[in-house]
Design a protein that fits this description.
Mean pLDDT: 95
CATH topology of one domain: Endonuclease III, domain 1
Helix content: 40-55%
Number of strands: 7
Order of helices and strands: EHEEEEHHHHHEEHHHHHHH
Shape: globular
Distance between the termini: 38 Å
Strand content: 5-15%
């Protein structure tokens, strides 16, 4: 590729394509030539992933440090975390089969809204609804890419403005979330500083947000890596493999552990 601005990252315990395609983010595309393209924080980025490095096109060193290093959670020692998981046979299998998964630190509003949309839904349809939401209300970033619309824009659109999303019953939940974020009932700064239980209770004041969606928002939008989203796959894992709860090696990082276990179970049954 011939891009003027780019940044080269030497990878360590990082598989970007796997992290983008393991059920935690919904706005990344892979072209036939293997280039990964997506939008986060109102920025379009193209990534060429190689064996030991990744080239980020359309950014520079400062922006990479301000946005993409945080997005990829590069400040956390996943090497040490994954080595601790080796003490458990099932986690060891998952980490060895799919090394390099990281928890993406997404924008809180986008994570919350995306996982409200994910309820009783499949990944292709989730991606379609989110894409239509961004095309309808987001800013045009060029090249067929759009920013994720703010809660203020979503609220102003109302049910009629969200009709093109074809999101069904989820529209009323999206609008309630937007209203509560806009009026301060749900305060992202407060949630960021709160403990897991208190933060989850605040998110659950939103209509349609239960334990699973709240945990997803906290894990993927606030970097609270001990949050444990329990969906159908994770319920099976807990029932079949960990009836007494996740092992001690996951303490404080249960969200990271479940991401490996979830992807392993989803891909291998």
């Amino acid at each position: 590729m011939n891009e003027k601005n780019f940044y080269v990252l030497h990878k360590n315990f990082l598989n970007i394509s796997l992290s983008f395609d393991c059920g935690q983010a919904f706005r990344w595309r892979v072209s036939p030539d293997g280039i990964i393209t997506g939008v986060a924080f109102g920025k379009v980025i193209k990534i060429e992933e190689r064996e030991n490095e990744a080239v980020f096109y359309g950014t520079d060193e400062k922006e990479f440090g301000d946005i993409w290093a945080k997005y990829l959670d590069l400040g956390r020692d996943y090497g040490a975390i994954c080595r601790s998981f080796e003490s458990d046979r099932y986690l060891r299998q998952a980490v060895r089969a799919y090394p390099g998964i990281r928890i993406l630190r997404q924008e809180p509003w986008e994570a919350l809204c995306s996982f409200i949309i994910s309820q009783n839904n499949n990944i292709p349809r989730i991606k379609g609804i989110i894409e239509r939401l961004c095309e309808t209300l987001g800013d045009d970033l060029g090249g067929g890419f759009y920013s994720f619309p703010s809660p203020e824009k979503v609220l102003a659109a109302g049910a009629e403005g969200l009709a093109p999303l074809r999101a069904g019953f989820r529209v009323k939940y999206i609008l309630d979330a937007a209203a509560k974020v806009c009026d301060g009932t749900v305060d992202f700064d407060r949630i960021d500083k709160s403990g897991l239980e208190e933060a989850a209770e605040e998110l659950k004041t939103i209509k349609g947000v239960g334990d699973k969606v709240a945990a997803c928002a906290l894990l993927y939008g606030f970097g609270k890596v001990d949050a444990l989203p329990v969906d159908t796959w994770v319920k099976k894992i807990l029932a079949e493999t960990y009836p007494d709860g996740l092992p001690a090696c996951t303490k404080g990082v249960r969200g990271i552990a479940q991401q490996y276990l979830f992807h392993y179970k989803r891909m291998n049954g």
